[in-house]
Amino acid sequence: MRWENLTESAEHGRADAALFGADAVVSRTFDTPEFAGITFHEIRARSIINRVPGASRMPFEWTVNPYRGCTHACVYCFARKTHSYLDLDTGLGFDSQIVVKVNAPELLRRQLGSRRWTGDHIAMGTNVDCYQRAEGRYRLMPGIIAALRDHANPFSILTKGTLILRDLDLLRQAAAVTDVGISVSVGFTETELWRTVEPGTPAPERRLDVVRTLGEHGIGCGVLMAPVIPFLSDRPAQLRATVRAIAAAGATSVTPLVLHLRPGAREWFMAWLNREHPYLVRRYERLYSDGAYAPKWYQRRITRQVHELAQEYGIGPAGAGMPRRIREPKPEVEPVSETTQLTLI
User: Fold this and answer.
1) Most buried one in 18, 76, 159, 337, CB count within 10 A?
2) CA triplet 45, 105, 89: central angle to 5 degrees?
3) What is the pTM of this model?
């Protein structure tokens, strides 16, 4: 494994020093059913706030990713390619070889306190899920959220994990001093499809329970309806059932995103498609013949249908990547630290 290759140039197109050295890696396995077949590579990272490449379509500039690889094992995950930077397999290796940045909370706190950091919005869960199963053991997110809270730094979290409810109190504390956005990813509600394309995730109804529970505690939660999978979850009746369930859970918004197949993910997904739905292979080859994204006409059709259904059920699309304030801060609440409260521009 080329641990020395996990550099900022590998992640962000810049040529800087390695984020950690090979001598800092400790690999572990755990004899428990939930971690069967999984190896954790514990490292002490040198940097934790990452700049998103300028060419990215992401509507944010900075991310924090405490993990690499993801036990959710989603067959379409666009982050699979990042495992190749370590000479790790982008298929089963991505699902079972998990890099854990064990010093993420302390490192983030130090970087947030740097005079060079200007307090920009930080997005989490945009590469791999920060509330995947590993988080139940390593518990990195409480320290990360606490650091963001103490520096009044705006942030957002996207997850398929139910473990986020463990940190509900911390999220409420952070929302008292800064802008916090929470979104849960639910692309469809069909159980059979979920079991084959997202085998390591909580069931869609459990994720919608998270949306419902957050709302009951005053935390507005949007849903990223992603991915909408062509020919498997895009029929009008399927879209309606999904949006109806999202609305019933009390989501503040719903934003559809059609499946995209970047290198690394494309090969793994197409191999799965050939096994499970071989009759669709040629249709996918035509639909994605121009690259990683479905044609604009198809994306617009799905977006229009979902937005019309959302309006019918009383919810709307989210703003372009903007966090929603969970709770308006009360005048008597003082910031947790002496850091000046920051606002998202």
Assistant:
1) 159
2) 45
3) 0.85
- Look at residue 1 in the predicted model and tell me its pLDDT: 52
CA distance 163 to 111: 26
* Angle in degrees, CA 11, 258, 298, rounded to 5: 130
Q: Quote the tokens at residue 135.
A: 């988080």
Token couple for 60? 């944010």
Residue with tokens 């918004």: 253
| pLDDT recorded at residue 55 | 59
Distance between CA atoms of 301 and 244, rounded to whole angstroms?
A: 18
Give the pLDDT confidence of 98-154 residue by residue, as tens digits.
999 999 999 999 999 999 999 999 999 988 999 999 999 999 999 999 999 999 999
Cis? peptide before 204, omega within 30° of 0: no
H or E element at residue 204: helix 204-216
Query: What would the two tokens of residue 146 be?
Result: 């606490």
Q: CA-CA distances (angstroms) from residue 215 to 147, 280, 309, 333?
A: 24, 39, 21, 21
β-pairing verdict for 39-43 and 26-28 = antiparallel
Task: Mark the ranges of the chain whose per-residue pLDDT is less than 70.
Answer: 1-24, 54-58, 316-345
Q: Note the Cα 224 to chain centre separation in Å.
A: 10
Coil, strand or helix at 39: strand
Tokens of 215: 């709302």
